[in-house]
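re the bet — no i am not wrong, look at it urself. input seq straight from the record:
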Amino acid sequence: MVVGSVLYEALIDATGTGALADVLLSAADQAAGVDEIFGYWLDERGRVFVIVSSGHVGSSQSRADRYASQYHALDPLAGMAHYHGKDMRMARLAASDVHHSAYRRECYDHPGFAEKIAFARARGGRNFVLNFYRRKEQPVGSLDTLSELAELAFPLLRKHVDLARDDTDLPIVAKLEQRLTNTYPLLSRREREVCARTLTGMTAEAIGIDLSVSETTVLTYRRRAYERYNLSNSQEMLGRILF
């Protein structure tokens, strides 16, 4: 198995929380020298929803949000997201094969990624994609290792979406809102709602849809919440409510 039992248990425990991205990155880094992970799903209208994003260089969440809103259609591997077969698909993309300059600059050149290895799987009426980014190309054999990790991860990603985005019952979001209330009592109701959903991995666009507000309003509430407690990002906020 590509990850030990302890780490796999950590992946299961993190499913449905904002910690899943970091735990999955740790597993991928240990297994195959991965520097960033990014998982998303598409709805029936072709909209991209970020599930997990974590990396060692700069703001992985910012890159994921920008990909979802601007660059997905420009990705040479975008067609994988529309795959409806039963088997998992895999493709490898070198940074030099990305021809759109702005997309390549922001998502490859600036963080220094040499390649992306993408896996796609369709399950439960949704199309899931899991991307692994590396700053250095690794031996071909490492693809088998990543493939095994992806096989383990896809069921967890699907469960993560079900837990975090259930329209009738949001146990994970409600739990996070309560923890935010206890740890950050000065946050307004809207700031708690936005931050709780951010911690589940939802993008600003998805949060806006869920709360019936604009994406700009979501970003404003999130910025105010971080400034109120001198936080830099969601990882810092999550760290304080977990411990």
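see?? The longest strand covers residues 115-123. told u. also Confidence is low (pLDDT under 50) at residues 166-170. so pay up
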